[in-house]
Amino acid sequence: QVQLVESGGGLVQAGGSLRLSCAASKQTFSSYHISWFRQAAGKDREFVAAISRSGGWINYADSVKGRFTISRDNAKNTVYLQMNSLKPEDTAVYYCAARGTLGSARYEYWGQGTQVTVSS
Questions:
Q1: Residue 8's closest CA among 95, 67, 66?
Q2: Edge-to-edge strands, sheet with 68-73
Q3: CA 99 to CA 83: how far, in whole Å?
Q4: Whose C-alpha in 19, 29, 46, 58 is 20 to 30 A from the C-alpha of 68?
Q5: Using CA atoms, how far apart are residues 53 and 64, in angstroms rounded to an integer?
Q6: By C-alpha distance, which of 62, 66, 118 is closest to 94?
Q7: How much of the chain, in percent, has pLDDT values that exceed 90?
Q8: Is residue 101 pLDDT above 80, yes or no?
Q9: Per-residue pLDDT tens for 14-55?
């Protein structure tokens, strides 16, 4: 069992920045590929960014390309999501999720989420 805990959310003005963290409970964290998702009120959950277990493969949703950066530090069992040039439409609960197989639609573990609110 891997527990994922997100942190770093908050209220920020449009154009500002936040860095989200996804910390894992186990040393086996480096065995998992990690993705960030978000869900705005009344909307479906959507993919934001993904990083492979080694960090050598990264993918972003078109809506965040050039503004968000995903990275990981396996020594600290943590994945980060640096969010710059934030827009009101980035407001959502952000979740990290872990999967053992890159490309699989199935994620074995999810965090509880952290709220990001961007004011205009």
A1: 95
A2: 4-7, 18-24, 78-83, 68-73
A3: 23
A4: 29
A5: 21
A6: 118
A7: 89
A8: yes
A9: 999 999 999 998 778 889 999 999 999 999 999 999 999 999
